[in-house]
Amino acid sequence: MTLVAYLQSRYAASTAEAYGREIAAYLSGYPGAATAGYGDVVQWLGVLRSRYSNASTLNGMLCAVKAYYGWLVASGARTDNPAKRIRLRDMRSRDIQLQDLLSPAELEALLPANGQKGRYTALDYRDRVLVGLLVYQALKPAEIAALRVTDIDLENGMVSTAGTVSTNGRVLALQASQVLLLYAYLREIRPRLLKGAACDRLLLGLRGNPMAGEDIVKHVLRHHPVSAQRIRQSVIANKLKAGEGLAAVQAFAGHKYPSSTERYRQTCEGELAAAVAAYHPMG
Q1: Alpha-carbon torsion, ordered 10, 15, 21, 27, to 10 deg
Q2: Measuring CA to CA, which residue among 229, 227, 236 is closest to residue 265?
Q3: Residue range of the domain that includes 278
Q4: In percent, how much of the chain has pLDDT > 70?
Q5: Which of 8, 105, 148, 278 has CA atoms 20 to 30 A from the CA of 163?
Q6: How many separate domains does the chain show?
Q7: How far apart are CA 206 and CA 126, in angstroms?
Q8: Do 249 and 194 reside in the same domain of the chain?
Q9: How many angstroms separate the CA atoms of 61 and 234, rounded?
């Protein structure tokens, strides 16, 4: 079994693709990786810590390396996985940072203005589609990257997204402005990006290649003062603040467990309590 086939048989498509890229980078930077021992992998992690401070990024790289050695074991090239028992001790907080959340008005301001001119007009259209899916549907980058043309139902104004490891699949309503934008993108802009090639993914790059989830993450950070994750968190929190029920917001966000949505409600309630304590005359 090839490495690609191994990854595809055990992980979601987006995860398998991301692991493949991380493994390729690992192998190119460490020629002796195939015969490395536990200490060698730990030393490699130490080098990465000097380059990356984000625990989630490091954990993703480590998971990819574990998958690589898992493949070597499955293919008979090794009898052990030297990375299997390695765990990062970094405390990755699940708390939602209030100071980083955006109001509905601030989210709307992230959307590129109609008629905004850039170097690549076709990419301007695509970027407006991308940001809209973040701001209005709160989709994750991996969900956006996995969208296919057939997932867009312009007649009924809906977008369907498949489930991932952490989210359920769902069908979400599009804004009227999104329907008009997507109509133009699908009919005129996307064919220009394809340049005669065949691809069923919704969002494409300048050369007609589909955008990967990691590309979307980097694109948002490059062009906006906030991450895609914070945009999603802001949309979910704003819905709860507006009085929408927990079950409805859970379904919208695709959370598999009510506890995931509950964290946002606790965050909103904590924010309210802090405001009351600070400004209420009886505080």
Answers
A1: -40
A2: 236
A3: 93-103+226-283
A4: 86
A5: 105
A6: 3
A7: 10
A8: no
A9: 27
